[in-house]
Amino acid sequence: MNTPADELVIDSVTGIDVALPVAGAGARALAFLGDWHIRFILALAWFVAAGVIYNGRFSLTGPGGNQPSWIGAVLAPPLAIYFLYHPLVEIVMRGRTPGKRWAGVRIVARDGGVPGIGPLLVRNVFRLIDSMPLFYGVGLVVTVLTREHVRVGDMAAGTLLVYEGRNAGLPVAAGAAGVDARLDPLGLELAAELLERWPELTTVARVQLAQQLLTRHVAGIVPGSDEGALRAQLQQLVTPSA
Amino acid sequence: MSTARQHALTVSLLQRAQLWRAAEERARRLARGTTDDVADATRMADDYRLLAHDLSRVRALLPDTRTRAYLESAYARAHATLHHGATRAGSTLLKLFRDELPQVVRELRIYIFWSTVIFALAVAAGYALVHRYPELIALFASPDLIASVERGQLWTEGLLNIVPSSILSVQILTNNIVVSLFAYCAGFLFGLGTLYILGLNGLMLGAVFAFVGEHSLAGALFKFIAAHGWVELSVMCLSGAAGAAVGEALIRPGDGGRADSFRVAALRSGRLLVACTLLLVGAGIIEGYVSPNPHFTLGARLTIGIAYWLFMVALLSGHLWPRRADLSARQAGF
Fold first, then answer.
1. Is B256 in the same domain as B109?
2. Can you tell me whether residue A19 is helix, strand or coil?
3. Domain residues of chain A, as ranges?
4. Is the pLDDT reported for residue B198 higher than 60?
5. How many CB pairs under 8 A join A and B?
6. What is the ipTM score, two decimals?
7. Which residue of B has its CA nearest to A8?
8. Residue A109 and residue A117: Cα distance in Å, rounded?
């Protein structure tokens, strides 16, 4: 087995490479489960709603035989929703699906860009292989064994799944960067983050973390003993003095 | 680097956060659609350079921080936005059918030839096998089909009394498209899967022809498939060729390695599958509406079948669309 790749690194014209964190089998499985539930519920909802409307009462029994209107209005659309969900949604949402969004992943091409329609279709056609023999057995095994955690469809299409990085928000202090020369760069960000999370922490945790931070990252400061004083000290450090 | 200098650099970097936010927002907005504003697009290129510059600093100064994670994400988004191609469905489709498809067919012609040979040999083998040992038809055909033929009746007779044409068409075209896509994908098994599908379908066709021939129904079966069979069987060979190309890419990868070779072959052959799928939709409609309908004479069926096959040849050779050179000449008034 190859050593798993943490990142897809792409050369850029700027000389600074683009690093995209590669999603593993867990994130892929989570995304798939999310999408499976969505398409199943949508297909079922169509079947039930169309069946009730067709029959004019709460009954899902067909008229018998091969009635084209029943098949065309009640049976075929749910099957189309179920089987065409992935290719259509991935094309429309440019490599994303609701399930992938939920799992925080998206499909990218090898150049880091959004894959074209061709690769997205090829990736989905190869589900025929990945889904064999049952429950995506081939796809799951190949995903676990390959370096970039790709299934056969991704290999064929030259795509892979990466994390979106949607949770990577800037700390509040960025932009209003502290100018207190006593605070080192890492301390600056830690202080800002601690202040952000202040309301979620218990009193004991607030005091402990603030004291540790001030002791480790700020030269020549005596940390306060109560949480109000500590918070004031932190705020003073991350707020521009001007 | 001295701590004071490092600190000053960090502070000056973090003070650019508003620029990063603006850059990320622009990348996000432009990724969702297109813009006619040249200044907006130019600013995106400037943003890309700005993010690259600041990211390189942050990687050194703040390696394990949220600021870095944010910038990595914003830079990747800007990269994707700048590098995604134009999405014009019409011109993409025209390019596919006019330029790319004939090119793929030319590149795959040797595979198409050998797939056709393998399929024809399998048909012959199936025919010979059941002709010599009629009891072997049980391996290839369902009990209902066998019983119907033994009663002196093709299973296709009266089909429209059981299933309406629309349903029949959809059932047939769906089944054929799945088989065709599977023949392509099965190339992943080093071509063996494709070989199996081609061989099995050929054997079945030959075996059934031999069996109905034994009961003097070969003419009736030929009449049934005369309208749709030309294209349907040709598409079988085409998708087999696509699968064979994928298989050979794995067996004999080029200098780029097996993974690259597989990807290139799958994407190239995949274009042929678009045409195969569309052709099978047409063949399914013919098989649902024309083939089981006794009002169509053999002559009419052959005319439809051969005309549709010629349409397929024109489509695959790019002759359905005016060439660029022809267009230029026409525009120049020649």
1. yes
2. strand
3. 7-163, 185-238
4. yes
5. 151
6. 0.88
7. B76
8. 11
Same structural domain for residues B231 and B127? yes
Taking CA atoms, B230 is separated from A165, B24, B159, B238, B274, in Å, by 52, 55, 21, 12, 18
Together in a domain, B137 and B216: yes
Q: Are B179 and B197 in contact (CB under 8 A)?
A: yes
CA atoms within 13 A on the CB side of B326: 7
Backbone angles phi, psi at A183, to 5 degrees: -90, 125
d(CA A166, CA B80): 15
Selected residues 167-196 of chain B with any CB under 8 Å from a CB in chain A: 167, 170, 178, 181-182, 184-186, 188
Token pair of A31 as six digits: 């995304």
Residue-wise pLDDT for B100-156, tens only, equals 999 999 999 999 999 999 999 999 999 999 999 999 999 999 999 999 999 999 988
In chain B, residues with a C-beta closer than 8 Å to the C-beta of A119 are 267
Q: What single string gives the DSSP state of each residue in A38-51?
A: HHHHHHHHHHHHHH
For helices B298-317 and B258-289, angle between their N-to-C axes, nearest 10 degrees: 150
Question: What is the model's pTM?
Answer: 0.85
User: Which domain range does residue B158 map to?
Assistant: 90-324
* Minimum-distance CB partner of B14 among A128, A175, A184: A175
Cα-based distances in Å from A241 to A231, A238, B15, B70: 16, 9, 14, 25
Return the CA Rg of chain A: 26
Indicate whether B329 belongs to any domain.
Answer: no
Contacts of A177 in chain B (CB under 8 A): 10-11, 14-15, 17
B136 in the same domain as B69: no
Residue B271 structure tokens? 């274009």
Q: Do the beta carbons of residue A194 and residue A186 sit within 8 Å?
A: no
Sign of CA dihedral A193, A196, A200, A202: positive
